[in-house]
Amino acid sequence: MAHYAIGDLQGCHAEFMALLGRLRFDPGRDRLWLTGDLVNRGPDSLAVLREVKSLGRAVTAVLGNHDLHLLALAFAPKAVKRRDPELAAVLAAPDAAELLDWLAARPLLHRDDDLGWTLIHAGLPPQWTLDQAESCAREVECALRGDAAAMLAGMYGDAPDRWSPALEGADRLRFAVNCFTRLRFVDRKGRLMLAHKGTIADAPAGTLPWFRHPERATRGNGLVFGHWSALGYLAEPGLRGIDTGCVWGGSLTAIRLDRAAPPVCLPCRGAARAGD
After folding, report:
1. What is the 3-state secondary structure (H, E, C) of 12-71?
2. Statement: residue 273 has pLDDT above 60
3. Which residues of 125-150 are buried (b: 16+ CB within 10 A; e: fewer)?
4. 22, 100, 242, 265: which could form a disulfide with 251 (CB 3.0–4.6 Å)?
């Protein structure tokens, strides 16, 4: 049995199928992790959702910011300021309710201690241990499954920007959502710096990637993440960043998690413009 992880799909169904073919992926035998952002910007979010759902227990997909945005459009539309035309086909589909319920049941963090890896979409604040991260993920998941409209309506915004165990209610949930689905940079004090989305080289002074904070409590844990196409493929001890910008004309990347192997990168035609 092979255990793969693939980076952000963002509606790129054709590339996803081509990469699965190249891997000779067999859902009856193999297992697949997806870093989230299944939808948006690409040409066929609906086909991606249907395909991933059809793989059943062979696939584990965590929620990304674009996935939560789709859920907000469905369950808390008054809270959404941006309407993405790429998602209209999903909302209008005859199986929309089934697909959205399936998506809302996805986790924010998936941990496999036997495999030695944990899957997230974006990042973790330096203050969290892996146990704390898992606990906070379960809190958000519980809120999403209990009252999706309330949780999704309250998730937009950049504050609070620093972790405190005393955070509660919507502030606590929003902080966790921002870490799991939006985080790229922090400052030396461990505050989330959500405005910058570019490369490490052109980051504002005083900021650093979340995974390079010197006091990061998860340094001993293996983490697989996506979200950061400007970062490109990252392979460092205990870290695999695998969003390589398929929707922007980069590549779609798969890695093996059960043994050492070079990444498999499928060149992509690109479907989104830089201003999107």
Report:
1. CHHHHHHHHHHHCCCCCCCEEEECCCCCCCCCCHHHHHHHHHHCHHHEEECCCHHHHHHH
2. no
3. bbbbebebbbebbeebbebbeeebeb
4. 265
pTM of the predicted protein model: 0.96
Query: Which pLDDT band holds residue 86 (cuts at 50, 70, 90)?
Result: confident
Domain locations along the chain: 3-267
pLDDT tens string 5-18: 999 999 999 999 99
Q: What angle do CA 209, 211, 213 make, to 5 degrees?
A: 75
Looking at domain 3-267, its CATH class is alpha beta
**Spatial separation of the C-alpha atoms in residues 230 and 244, rounded to whole Å:** 8
Chain centroid offset of residue 74 CA = 19
DSSP bridge pairs for 112: 117
